[in-house]
């Protein structure tokens, strides 16, 4: 019985390690919209930052966000969190 517990513990440890590595190395663009926030992961470049308009580039698209009192709450490496009264999100193919 102890052996089964030991191997289960090792499997869970390996599984968690692999999930963490996948999360850290993830290069896929993701945009998640909440009530008053937008969370963006793996964008390329912030183009415009105004209180009513924010735009940025992904690999092959331009994203335009329109709203009221838009502000950056978090910007780290390739991750950004925008808060405000969001009225429109537009995706433009380059």
Features:
24% helix; Immunoglobulin-like; six-stranded antiparallel beta sheet; 94 residues
Low-pLDDT segments: none
Strand order of the largest sheet: 1-2-6-5-4-3
* Helicity range: 10-25%
Q: Describe the biggest sheet?
A: 6 strands, antiparallel
Quick structural gist:
The protein is an alpha+beta fold.
Describe the structure.
The chain is α+β, with helices and mostly antiparallel strands and about 90 residues long. It has a domain at about 30-94: Immunoglobulin-like (Sandwich). Helix content is about 25%, strand content about 55%. It has one helix and six strands; from the N terminus they run H-E-E-E-E-E-E. The chain has one helix spanning about 1-25; strands at about 30-35, 35-40, 45-50, 55, 60-75, 80-94. Strands 1-2-6-5-4-3 form a six-stranded antiparallel sheet, with no helix packed on it. The longest helix has 23 residues, at about 1-25. It is elongated, with a radius of gyration of 19 Å.
Strands, helices and their partners?
Elements lengths: L1 H23 L5 E4 L3 E5 L3 E5 L3 E5 L3 E16 L2 E15 L1
Antiparallel strand pairs: 1-2, 2-6, 3-4, 4-5, 5-6
């Amino acid at each position: 019985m102890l052996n089964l517990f030991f191997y289960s513990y090792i499997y869970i440890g390996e599984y968690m390690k692999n999930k963490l590595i996948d999360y850290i190395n993830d290069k896929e663009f993701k945009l998640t919209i909440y009530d008053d926030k937008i969370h963006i992961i793996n964008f390329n470049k912030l183009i415009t930052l105004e209180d009513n308009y924010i735009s940025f580039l992904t690999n092959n698209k331009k994203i335009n966000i329109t709203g009221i009192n838009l502000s950056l709450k978090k910007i780290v490496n390739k991750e950004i969190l925008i808060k405000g009264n969001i009225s429109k999100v537009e995706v433009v193919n380059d």
